[in-house]
Amino acid sequence: MPPAANAIREIAGVTPADLDATILASTEPLLLRGLVAHWPVVAAGRQSPQAALDYLRRWCGDATVNAMLGPPDIKGRFFYNAALDGFNFQSLRVRLDAVLDELAKHLATPAPPAIYVGSTTIDGALPGFRHENDVDLGPRDPLASIWIGNRTRIAAHYDVPDNLACIAAGRRRFTLFPPGQQHNLYIGPIDLTPAGQPISLVDFAQPDLARFPRFADALAQAQSAELGPGDALFIPSMWWHHVEALDDVNVLVNYWWRQSPDWMDTPNNALMHALMTVRDLPPAQRAAWAELFRHYVFEANGETAAHIPPGARGLLAPMNDNVSRMVRAQLLKRLNR
């Protein structure tokens, strides 16, 4: 990674009991050194890569997972093929213990294949693991996932939920960019992606500034940190992040949650619908719709519908579970016309 990135703000001495709203609702990334240093899996990882694998094996049983396997020549970078109509790796459904065996098999291999199990629900794949290794986030009810692999590089992408990423074994380098940097990150297709989210097409190990000149502007906004076992990183919603695993065995546990009600759908669906219905309108019409979106969505406030009696505001009233169900039903009816 080029050395232009700024350091992520670090808060020292934070324990899980200190994770209040000042941290978990931050709009800036925060580095929390040693947050989960007490976890047994961290102790195993510090002992050796094999010890980390042996610890995971205690919990995996006969669980099957989605794994990604790439040849040695991709050097851990899970990405597209040259035509951007496919990928440079295989996606497999395999037993988790077979993945652990494959990682152990290649611990001494100078140029191993790229092996990666991403975003796997812990309670399904490793039942009981969280009894010894967990962070209590209270009423947030997060989705707890585990990520296992060797020296891998995951292209810059965003996630809609807030994210607490905890390093259980190995080291990882995170490079983050604030929302709004998609123009400078050269994002690829949004409907064909390696792992579900649109990614940057820039190779961070060898950025081609002739092809991607605005990436230099993105780097000026970047924040970066290297995390070791026991460290954690809070990544706010919609921050772009590139993740590089630096050791032969790397294990990460993360927690995702949204600062919104369960009934609120993902804005990604609204983006896709807008692409279908708004993007290719004549410029004057598109500008008119931009003003409507500004008025009803992006700058909506108490004055937006103040002139309408409360009982007659319909969809302009505060959204709730019941209203969202009605909206969803109307949308499905219109989309299936």
From TrEMBL:
JmjC domain segment(s): 115-272
SMART domains, per database record: JmjC
Protein name: JmjC domain-containing protein
Species the sequence originates in: Massilia aurea
